[in-house]
Amino acid sequence: MGCFPCFGSEEVVNFHPPEEGDVKKEERPMVAPRIKTLSSGSDRFRSRSNLGAKKEALALKDGSGVTISAQTFTFRELAAATKNFRPACFLGEGGFGRVYKGHLESTGQIVAVKQLDKDGLQGNREFLVEVLMLSLLHHPNLVNLIGYCADGDQRLLVIHVIGNFNKSMQPKARPIFNDPKNLSKLADPRLQGRYPMRGLFQAVAVAFMCIQEEAAARPLIADVVTALSFLVNKPYDPHTSSHHSEERRSQGPRDEKMERENPENGCKWDAYVLEKDDSPSQIAGILKKKEFDRDREVSEAMMWGANWREKQRATNQENFD
Ligand SMILES: Nc1ncnc2c1ncn2[C@@H]1O[C@H](COP(=O)(O)OP(=O)(O)OP(=O)(O)O)[C@@H](O)[C@H]1O
């Protein structure tokens, strides 16, 4: 059974990547029961007179020795950093809660402080998942987690502030999203047209959901990871990539039904069925369907994180050898 890490200011705990068969209903939930063991910044504050003088870390260590860390902050530190969450420091509001710009006295860093809305839709569990996800996943397109505060009933995330956080993204994204041809031009140039068109479209659908005007309608980070891992785990078939589909398109029309039903080409992602089958609402449906089992999705997302790191390690090792 994959063990969910305890959070302790000094301790390093083992995070065993779940193994096949680990994600069983009866063994869930993995997240909620341990949230109470989050190291609270206030413990640190009480035990130390020099506020913020020493960095403490939430440390997670996986089975193969990779340690990831995040600092803990007291609520007092973050209140001071944001001038008591003054409206002038307000950056925006998301599904999680309000986001403020702050100045950390201890390091002089300018940060974004996300305060969990206690009356909001997201709770302790989502907070913990967000801490974990942002600690585990590092990518230029993902915000960088500096630390968190779990002080009393306060839950806050401290992340790197992004200067040009573009609030007008959605209107700009809409025309691109509605035009699959334009969309494919935006795909990673390194892929050189070798991507499944439908997968690409759905990935953008997920991105589009994340920038919806109404904060409460945006998916949780665990949902995003789940949806993307679902897409990423679809087998890549070069015969159904957009590149090849373009070639085939130029060779004349094909029987779409046959494409769909041919078990050999596994054409779930075939460009021929793009226009008919793909829609943002389809992905939205996956994320919002009533029987959506959040515990399972979170477990799967964690497993995906572990697998991803394993792949990274293998690649690094290959490059080293
Ligand atoms: N790192 C940051 N730097 C600058 N502004 C930010 C940052 N993070 C969030 N914001 C501002 O806060 C708003 C809400 O962002 P947030 O990430 O909380 O929303 P979200 O996509 O609904 O995600 P979540 O569900 O995690 O809240 C953004 O539109 C932006 O204006």
Automatic annotation (TrEMBL):
Residues 243-263 have a biased composition (Basic and acidic residues). Residues 236-269 are annotated as: Disordered. One of its GO terms (cellular component) is plasma membrane. Its main location: membrane. It comes from the Eukaryota. ATP binds at K114. Residues 85-321 form the Protein kinase domain. Pfam families: PK_Tyr_Ser-Thr. Keywords: ATP-binding, Kinase, Membrane, Nucleotide-binding, Serine/threonine-protein kinase, Transferase. It is found in: Membrane. GO terms for molecular function: ATP binding; protein serine/threonine kinase activity. The keyword Transmembrane helix does not apply. This is Protein kinase domain-containing protein.
